[in-house]
């Protein structure tokens, strides 16, 4: 009898390790590999160390025998922050997807947002990624965000994640517009204590985002679990271009959500308002228990 395979944490893995664990063995072909280095010229001008891939790995491969494109951010390089070259690589991959029509584009997001060292160049890069995601979806190519890294999906990449066809997230993943440290810096520790890890995860963490309906799937912190989740999602969903009626319905849902929960200050309060009988138990629930809890909530 074979022993079960050891779990390999997505949270702790590098960008390349995540790609290797996600795709079919030996199928990944990197675009702009180390021999074709494109480091950021802006960092060099500031005498800051760069990286040959500028913190993002892009390429083509196969997932359960389906052709896919992949972009994986490296959170260990400048917190996965997006600069000009970093963003251009993701945009180029998405534009190629419009032409070649793979089964999906998988964005392995691990980013605190825009690289402040590059200022406007980073902001422009984020806006171009947003447009490219929508262009790919309009062309019938699903764009799926996988969130579970140490940097989460914040700032511009948080917006990008929400523009995707779907988000797969782990309990360890985080998703929001402004990061906790940014909120604390601007509004003060009384508004948000970024050092209160339990509070941070109750507001931005994967369990909360899944309960709120922000994510299509909650998966375990495991390379194999993210792979299985991506395979299952692509096996069950196609990508019709979003209609105006669907966009308006989504806007109404957001307006209703703001009215219902906008004055609440903690995930515990939100979970109670959602109908969770014992909000304090949510952080302790295993993945399957939380999925069952969500399915049993009032609609």
Structure summarized in a few sentences:
The protein has 299 residues and is α/β, with parallel strands linked by helices. 43% of the residues lie in helices and 13% in strands. It has a seven-stranded mixed sheet, with helices on both faces.
Spatially, the strands of the biggest sheet line up as 1-2-3-4-5-6-7
Largest sheet: 7 strands, mixed
| N to C succession of SSEs | HEHEEHEHEHEHHHEHHHH
Give the mean pLDDT: 92
Fraction in helix: 40-55%
What is the terminal separation in angstroms?
44 Å
- The general outline is globular
Structure summary, number of beta strands:
7
What's the architecture of the domain at 15-175 and 215-241 in CATH terms? Alpha-Beta Complex
In CATH, the topology of the domain at 15-175 and 215-241 is named: 2-enoyl-CoA Hydratase, Chain A, domain 1
Name of the top-level CATH class of the domain at 15-175 and 215-241: Alpha Beta
Strand content: 5-15%
**Rg of Cα set:** 19 Å
Unreliable runs, pLDDT <50, ≥5 residues? none
Class from secondary-structure proportions: alpha/beta
Query: What's the number of helices?
Result: 12
Write out the CATH superfamily name of the domain at 15-175 and 215-241: 2-enoyl-CoA Hydratase, Chain A, domain 1
């Amino acid at each position: 009898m074979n022993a079960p395979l050891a779990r390999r944490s997505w949270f702790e893995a590098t960008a390349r390790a995540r790609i290797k664990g996600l795709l079919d063995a030996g199928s990944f072909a990197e675009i702009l590999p180390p021999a074709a280095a494109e480091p950021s010229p802006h960092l060099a001008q500031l005498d800051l160390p760069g990286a040959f891939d500028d913190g993002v790995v892009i390429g083509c491969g196969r997932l359960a025998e389906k052709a896919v494109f992949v972009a994986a951010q490296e959170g260990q390089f400048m917190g996965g922050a997006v600069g000009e070259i970093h963003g251009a690589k993701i945009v180029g991959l998405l534009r190629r997807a419009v032409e070649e029509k793979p089964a999906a584009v998988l964005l392995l997001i691990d980013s605190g947002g825009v690289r402040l060292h590059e200022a406007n160049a980073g902001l422009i890069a984020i806006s171009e990624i947003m447009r490219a995601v929508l262009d790919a979806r309009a062309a019938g190519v699903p764009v799926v965000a996988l969130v579970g890294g140490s940097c989460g999906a914040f700032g511009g990449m948080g917006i990008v994640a929400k523009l995707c066809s779907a988000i797969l997230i782990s309990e360890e993943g985080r998703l929001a517009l402004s990061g906790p440290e940014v909120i604390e810096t601007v509004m003060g520790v009384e508004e948000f204590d970024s050092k209160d890890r339990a509070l941070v995860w109750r507001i931005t963490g994967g369990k909360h985002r899944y309960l709120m309906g922000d994510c299509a799937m909650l998966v375990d912190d495991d390379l194999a679990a993210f792979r299985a989740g991506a395979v299952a999602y692509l096996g069950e969903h196609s990508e019709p271009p979003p209609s105006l009626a669907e966009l308006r319905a989504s806007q109404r849902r957001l307006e209703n959500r703001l009215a219902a929960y906008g004055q609440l200050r903690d995930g515990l309060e939100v979970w109670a308002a959602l109908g969770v009988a014992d909000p304090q138990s949510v952080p302790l629930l295993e993945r399957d228990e939380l999925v069952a809890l969500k399915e049993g909530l009032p609609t």
